[in-house]
Design goal:
single chain; alpha/beta; Arc Repressor Mutant, subunit A; 2 domains; 7-stranded mixed sheet; 44% helix; 20% strand
């Protein structure tokens, strides 16, 4: 007759699920509602609630009511010593994964918004102005207006232009936009979007062999395209070829993540780029003055976190 299994095996079963362990990393020293956890881990409420119940049944989390919500937190200080030691080991391993790192970025955004809400009473006038401004002018006009920082005589390359969204934003402010994409279907969609823009030149070609002469561009953008390229160093080398000396490059792409399904569903070759990797390939490709900045997560976004990198052609 077998005796009862040691309690440590029950703890291992609780922590073996990656979603539960990610949630515990977030709830260790933080109090979060179910909806806040859903936003951070990017999972539906039913899934998060099920995992929270399992963690509560195992003694890993507790909750308290605040208004109409329940705030959850980890019960680390109440755990028995063996469970606490196990958790510290799991936290060290799980906390270093790409998913957990991106969870922390979204957590900071959630906590920042919570602090903002607590200050709304003292800044009601500013809050009213934001709503009025958005109603009158939309909530994206300031992003489009930033293209006005470009010099009016510039020739800009929108490399991997897709349907031409970035080209449409830049074209009114510069002398010419050379928009390149390898997909005929994307270029057709861009042609429809950019109908009437007489300073846009749409060309079909690949980033590794751009259909642009040497040293023709004053600036170039690579918007969510580098992760599709098998050899980023080769592509960036050809981008450097078509840029004038000291010309500017703007890259927007994903930070490292573990969404393997993107390879099959969307043809991603790279699951994001680390700061070190990007700096290395940019330097090797002839760029300097490199700056890499993570972008604040959009609360409505469901994809991986993004960065923006700027550099100059050496």
């Amino acid at each position: 007759m077998h005796g009862r299994a040691p309690a440590i095996l029950d703890h291992l079963a609780s922590l073996a699920d990656t979603t539960r362990s990610r949630a515990l990393v977030l709830l260790d020293r933080n109090e979060l509602t179910v909806s806040e956890l859903c936003r951070v881990v990017q999972l539906p409420q039913s899934t998060v609630s099920r995992h929270l119940k399992a963690l509560a049944d195992g003694g890993w989390v507790s909750s308290r009511a605040e208004g109409t919500s329940n705030l959850y937190t980890m019960t680390r200080d109440e755990l028995e010593p063996a469970a606490r030691r196990l958790w510290l080991l799991v936290r060290e391993q799980v906390g270093a994964t790409p998913a957990a790192v991106q969870d922390q970025r979204r957590l900071q955004q959630v906590l920042s918004e919570r602090r903002t809400k607590s200050q709304e009473f003292f800044s009601s006038s500013a809050g009213q102005w934001d709503r009025v401004r958005d109603d009158l002018f939309g909530d994206r006009f300031h992003l489009a207006a930033l293209a006005g920082l470009a010099e009016p005589e510039w020739v800009v390359g929108d490399l991997g232009c897709g349907t031409g969204q970035v080209t449409a934003a830049i074209a009114p402010f510069v002398a010419r936009v050379v928009a390149v994409d390898g997909s005929a279907a994307m270029l057709q969609a861009a042609r429809k979007r950019l109908h009437g823009a007489d300073n846009v030149d749409l060309r079909r070609g690949e980033l590794e062999a751009l259909p642009i002469d040497d040293a023709r561009l004053d600036a170039a953008t690579l918007m969510l395209v580098l992760h599709h390229v098998p050899d980023p160093a080769k592509a960036l080398g050809d981008v450097a070829r078509v840029l004038k000396p000291n010309a500017r490059l703007l890259v927007v792409d994903t930070l490292p993540h573990d969404r393997e399904s993107y390879r099959q569903q969307m043809g991603h070759v790279w699951l994001g780029f680390s700061d070190d990797h990007l700096r290395r390939v940019l330097t090797e490709s002839g760029f300097g003055a490199i700056r890499v900045v993570p972008l604040a997560p959009d609360p409505k976004a469901k994809g991986p976190a993004l960065f923006v990198a700027t550099a100059r052609r050496s």
